């Protein structure tokens, strides 16, 4: 387990090494939590970050990779948490890119994408508008047949209430995922970010769980 040596200043201030800040994805203003275990050891944790749901989504893939790398015991637990944080940080990075694209008008409204069947009626109480990043559009093009036909209904559901689906909890953004419904498409997911102030939903990526995991892992490593 890697350790860091820091010095406390006169007013009790501690400066965290840049490497540690980058690893944890910390930014100015973030809160940290110091926990004391029964043996008197201090554990420093990010207080307002939760990557628990992310482990539910990728746990099997993460553990499979770590076992192949020969990790076990305490090392396995440490590496597992590291991987979850890395993937969560990547999702936040994608969300930040999506926010920038949204502000610059470089996103695609799902109803204007030719490969999707746009003949579905809008919800009368529609309050949200669903957009896709260029990456998500490329993902859609790869989908075929029955799987692609299910996407418009997912978009309609997101227009109605994007917050009802399971949250993946990036540290800074409200990131969620939707499962496709049929037996054929049950391993496919739609990953998206919610921007409440703009009443906008931005689709980050679409695909099979393993494909999404490999993509995020590739960006993290």
Characterization of the model:
- With 221 residues, the protein is α+β, with helices and mostly antiparallel strands.
- The chain folds into 2 domains: 7-48, Pemi-like Protein 1, Chain: D (Ribbon), CATH 2.10.260; 58-220, YaeB-like fold (2-Layer Sandwich), CATH 3.30.2310.20.
- Helices cover 42% and strands 18% of the residues.
- It has a 5-stranded mixed β-sheet with strand order 3-4-7-6-5, with helices on both faces. A two-stranded antiparallel sheet has the order 1-2.
Quick structural overview:
The protein has 221 residues and is of the alpha+beta class. Helices cover 42% and strands 18% of the residues.
* Number of distinct helices: 6
Q: For the CA atoms, what is the radius of gyration?
A: 20 Å
Q: Would you tell me which CATH topology of the largest domain applies?
A: YaeB-like fold
Largest sheet: 5 strands, mixed
Query: What is the CATH superfamily classification of the largest domain?
Result: RelE-like
Q: What's the helical proportion of residues?
A: 40-55%
Mean of pLDDT: 82
**Regarding CATH, which class of the largest domain?**
Alpha Beta
Based on the structure given, which CATH architecture of the largest domain is correct? 2-Layer Sandwich
Number of strands: 7
């Amino acid at each position: 387990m890697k350790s860091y040596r820091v010095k406390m200043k006169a007013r009790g201030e501690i400066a965290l090494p840049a490497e540690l800040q980058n690893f944890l994805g910390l930014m100015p203003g973030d809160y940290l939590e110091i926990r004391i275990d029964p043996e008197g050891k201090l554990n420093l944790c990010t207080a307002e970050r939760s990557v628990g749901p992310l482990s539910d989504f990728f746990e099997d893939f993460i553990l499979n990779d770590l076992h192949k790398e020969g990790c076990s015991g305490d090392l396995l637990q440490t590496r597992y948490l590291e991987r979850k944080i890395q993937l969560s940080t990547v999702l936040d990075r994608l969300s930040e890119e999506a926010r920038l694209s949204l502000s610059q008008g470089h996103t695609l409204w799902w109803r204007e994408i030719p490969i999707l069947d746009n003949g579905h009626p809008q919800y009368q109480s529609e309050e949200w508008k669903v957009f896709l990043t260029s990456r998500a559009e490329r993902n859609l093009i790869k989908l075929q047949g029955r799987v692609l036909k299910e996407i418009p209904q997912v978009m309609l559901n997101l227009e109605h209430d994007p917050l009802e689906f399971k949250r993946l909890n990036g540290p800074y953004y409200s990131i969620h995922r939707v499962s496709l419904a049929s037996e054929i498409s049950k391993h496919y997911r739609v990953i998206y970010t919610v921007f409440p102030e703009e009443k906008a939903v931005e689709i980050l990526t679409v695909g099979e769980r393993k494909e999404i995991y490999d993509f995020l892992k590739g960006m993290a490593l």
